[in-house]
Amino acid sequence: MRKLFIAASSAAALFVIAAAHPAPAKADFKICNQSSEKISVAIAYHDQEAGNWVSRGWWNVDPGECKVPLSGELKDRYYYLYGDGEQHYWSGEHSFCVDNNDKFTLNEADTTCDYDFEGFLEVDTGESNGYTYTFQ
């Protein structure tokens, strides 16, 4: 009986320690789809290391699903998204190059384009290390 008490006490102590020190949340840029249609999403951002604008796509996001186009801690405050749905578009006033026919990663996407320019909406992540944008 004493061994059972010691084991239970040890387990409880480990639980309290784990609860007091939760694992750090993963900081990503995540997109979620709360609309009623499948959405293909492209993202654009300023690549500080390369010193230019990059656009990337496509992430196919089903209704109720989330995807992570950028992993890790956010390096910028502003990111740009374009969503192409079965019935709707989610767009904005910031033009970036996209390849509407295939997956892509394009450098200098704000000025150089062998494909199509699309209007992206601006997402202000504030001072966050990670951010979730929800399409509705």
- The H/E string reads HEEEEEEEEEE
First-residue to last-residue Cα separation: 57 Å
Give the DSSP E fraction (strand runs of 2 or more residues). over 45%
Query: What is the rounded Rg?
Result: 21 Å
What is the tally of helical segments? 1
- Give the biggest sheet: 7 strands, antiparallel
Characterization of the model:
- By secondary structure, the chain is mainly beta.
- Helices cover 14% and strands 46% of the residues.
- The chain contains one helix and ten strands, in the order H-E-E-E-E-E-E-E-E-E-E.
- The strands form two sheets. Strands 2, 3, 5, 6, 7, 8 and 9 form a seven-stranded antiparallel beta sheet that branches. Strands 4-1-10 form a three-stranded mixed beta sheet, with no helix packed on it.
- Strand 2 and strand 3 form a beta hairpin.
- The longest helix is centred in the N-terminal third of the chain and has 19 residues.
- It is globular.
Element layout with pairings:
Elements: H1 2-20, E1 29-33, E2 39-47, E3 52-61, E4 66-70, E5 78-85, E6 89-90, E7 94-98, E8 104-107, E9 116-124, E10 131-135
What features would you highlight for this structure?
10 strands, 136 residues, mainly beta, 7-stranded antiparallel sheet
In short:
With 136 residues, the protein is mainly beta. 14% of the residues lie in helices and 46% in strands. The strands form 2 sheets. Strands 2, 3, 5, 6, 7, 8 and 9 form a 7-stranded antiparallel beta sheet that branches.
